[in-house]
Amino acid sequence: MNRARYLCLCVGLCLPSLAHAHLVSARFGDFYSGLLHPLTSVIHIVPWMALALGNGVQALPQARCVLWLFPLVVGLGVVCGLFMPPSQSLEFGVIATFGVALVAVAGRALPAGVWVLLVSSVGVVHGLAHAEPALEGRALMLYAAGVTLAAHWIILSVTATTYWLCRRWAWCVIGVRALGSWVLAMGVLFGGYRLLV
Amino acid sequence: MRLSSRLRLFWFLLTLISFPALAHTDAGVAGGLLSGFIHPVKGVDHLVAMIAVGLWGAQLRQPAIWLLPITFPLVMAFGGLAGLAGLPLPGLEIGIAASAIALGLAVGFAWRAPLWLAGLLVALFAVFHGYAHGRELPQAANPLAYGAGFVVATGLLHLCGIGLGALTHWPRGAQWVRALGVGIAVCGGYFLLAAAG
């Protein structure tokens, strides 16, 4: 029996399949491209995580609302970005979104309207920044769906973790504040670098 | 013959603990992140001061335990901006050494400073540390990744300090923490002598 298992393992190891490292050339390549773009870019993923941290300390109705609102606004921004001329100021807009970490530093819930407005603004800026003018039709929809799913995944996972931890252990709010201060510091440094160097 | 086989074993073990050469440490996002992360850890003058901030915060308890580690990276970022902009800051190395001495002595004597004064001192020293990091930022391949690396490393070192500071809940542990503070102050003295030439 043992020998049979070893034999199966050996045969399995001898039958490697292709790695498909370049998913862009596959059928859903644009989807994967959209999915991975924000996840592999520090300038996008860090403010998104800060936003999710801030969302985790909001009241439950607002936090739930943002779980679908943010990805939706990001997706719309990606599509709308096609119809807008490329702008250098968009990068500074993205850097400014690091400021959303102030909510995490404060560790307090904001009024519902203010929070929704803030999240929408951040979503629009990041959506526009993700726009790929070269894409159109089905490719664009796949790409936008990928970016939207990435936004939903980040917001959902970090918000859920933060919300759950902060409701159980009060000291987790300290962690949220500290992480928020790290994000703010990164934003100050990067913004300063872009302006000064 | 016996010695020879031991020698072979020794050489074999040596090859197992070899480190990668890392000839191009600043290349790309990963390189920028790594070099930024290593910078405060590799520089012992930074390392001891960051740990002292955490230790002092733990000694002072709430709210200093979270206020000091939040203040430090935020102000450090502005110090980094000053370094980026090339603003003159005389006595940089002396300031960093002084931070280790002052914070080490504060821990060593378990100084119950008022919160505003503790925050002010930590913020003042953070400027020196941030300036030193900021001066090296333009050389990194990816500035945001470099900034993220050293901010995260700084925060984690504070966390180490807070973790060690948890020993203050036991009488013998509190003595150990104070001894650690004195050790940090001695390190600072050494750095001061080295900076003074």
What does this structure look like?
The complex is a heterodimer of chains A (197) and B (197). With 197 residues, chain A is an all-alpha fold. Chain A has helices spanning 2-13, 29-39, 42-56, 60-80, 89-96, 101-106, 112-130, 138-168, 171-196. In chain A, helix 2 runs parallel beside helix 8. The mean pLDDT of chain A is 85. Chain B is built from eight helices and no strands. Chain B is globular and about 65 Å long. Chain B has helices at residues 2-16, 28-42, 44-60, 64-85, 92-108, 115-136, 143-165, 171-196. Chains A and B meet through helix 3 and helix 9 of A and helix 4 and helix 7 of B.
Outline:
The complex is a heterodimer of chains A (197) and B (197). By secondary structure, chain A is mainly alpha-helical.
Instruction: Characterize the overall form of chain A.
Output: globular
The arrangement of helices and strands of chain A along the chain is HHHHHHHHH
Greatest interface (CB-CB under 8 A), with counts per chain: A-B, 20 and 30 residues
Q: State the oligomer.
A: heterodimer
Please provide the ordered H/E string of secondary-structure elements of chain B.
HHHHHHHH
Number of strands of chain B: 0
Instruction: Report the biggest beta sheet of chain B as strand number plus sense, adding barrel if it closes.
Output: none
Uncertain segments of chain A = none
Distance between the termini of chain A: 67 Å
Secondary-structure content class of chain B:
mainly alpha
Mean pLDDT of chain A: 85
